[in-house]
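B., you asked whether I could sanity-check this one before it goes into the benchmark set. Here's the sequence:
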Amino acid sequence: MGTSLAHPGLALAVVCAVMVLAAALVYRIADLEHPLAAPKAALRGALQLAVVSVVLAAALQHLWSSAAILVAMFVAAAVTAARRADAGRSGAWLSTSLATGVAAVLPLLLLSGVVPLEGVAVIPIGGIVLGNAMTATSLAAKRALDAIAQRYGEVEAALSLGLSLRDSRMEVIRAAASDALLPGLDQTRTVGLVTLPGAFVGVLLASGSAVQAGAVQILVLVGVLLAQTCAVAVTMELVARAMVTRSAR
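And here's what the prediction gave me:
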């Protein structure tokens, strides 16, 4: 037996408006910067979801259109990762990190039959994997580039000892970039104890089966771990080889 949640309507609009106004009020009372940040973010999110909902309703009808949506999502993720890392034009190389992460997971899920080759399944799973790979990639690149800027003397010292540029930079960035994997690891370690992630809740509400929801969630979490690990590993190599650098100011 399925369970319905959050039907579009007046009640949903009123509740969302109350929460947004409450957030803005807390901004004002706590003297946080930009009290309108929450309302602006909520309005933008609502508009984007409205457009995406209409587009997806049509795209999910065909596999080719679903694939096109994933390609558009990939481009947006690549641009976002480069911008967050403040890597300028060299940030385009970070698309390699994203592609590696996604390629390590999606083909395995689809070819094994665990995820059906249908738009209604491919887009959500692909989006989750891509989104988490993007977060890990941008964070790894940013922290790695920050580490090189702050500890450049150590890089030069390693170079003077005969280490290659790649090895010298890797000595500095390895620990910093590896921190990008901590959120994913912590989420997997604490799932069911501290949090119930979206995939679990979504399947539970749709099917009413906690077992099926748990199976889908562990599949998603393990896939995310693999995608993030591959993406961060490639990002470290790109930064260590100076293919991704900090943009000139």
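One thing to flag: The chain has two domains: 1-59, 62-240. Otherwise nothing jumped out at me.
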